[in-house]
Amino acid sequence: MDQAEIARRGLVLLGCGKMGSAMLAGWLDGGLPASSVHVIDPYPSDWVQAQGVHVNGALPDSPAVVLIAVKPQMMGDALPSLQALGNGDTLFVSVAAGTTIDTLAGILGAQTPIIRAMPNTPAAVGKGITAIIGNALTSAAQLDTTETLLRAIGQVVRLETEAQMDAVTGVSGSGPAYVFHMIECLAKAGEAQGLSADLAMQLAKATVEGAGALAMQADESPAQLRVNVTSPNGTTQAGLEVLMDETTGLPKLVENTVAAATNRSKELANG
Length: 271
Fold this sequence. Notes:
The chain has helices at 3-9, 18-29, 46-49, 75-78, 101-108, 140-150, 165-173, 175-192, 197-217, 222-228, 235-243, 250-270, and strands at 11-14, 37-40, 54-55, 65-68, 91-94, 114-118, 128-134, 154-158. It is α/β, with parallel strands linked by helices. It has an eight-stranded mixed sheet with strand order 3-2-1-4-5-6-7-8, with helices on both faces. Helix 7 crosses helix 12 (250-270) and helix 8 packs across helix 9 (197-217). It is elongated and about 70 Å long. It starts with a helix and ends with a helix.
């Protein structure tokens, strides 16, 4: 399945909030005709309505892809209207957190090709990372198509099993919030050392952004980059001795943080 087939058969986007809008913007920028996109959303934004896509109209009989981008709690209301498209050759891709492939198949039909995806919030600025896994009915071509569609919002990785999705949730799904809190803490610590709140926050944001960009672009590992910036008996070493302490420092804290989020993901999926 390629973009030409999606353009011909149509793509249905169920839910067009921040995540859906970010994906839609990427698809349209990438050349997907607006006339091929059908958006279903009870409260479409002015931006969505201005893109030339079909909004809350009649759907094609056999769209190439239905992408589900509603919040998990809205799934029960939204999905039944699409049941008629299940058990066919329409691919369903879900970016709804915590909703398993089995749950989706229970609504759409056991013969429905389904791919579950876990993006994260930096998708809103095209810097997300999304993990995908398909059921046994999905083809290699459908996985390729999904990867292409989701590259509109950042990087894409493929999982070996759906069970890995809980750990992905704990690391990259929830991870942006951990980093936002790190920025808060770094800024507060700067204030405590005499900087103004605005200056401390500017320094903290730019430091995290810059370090992330360097980590992505450098050939060295993050561990080596850390070593590169750490002069013997210098300021960075003094700070790292606190941060890297095995009992009171960051390693155990982050391990516990990711474990808590992963375990909660498992609970929600089984709930």
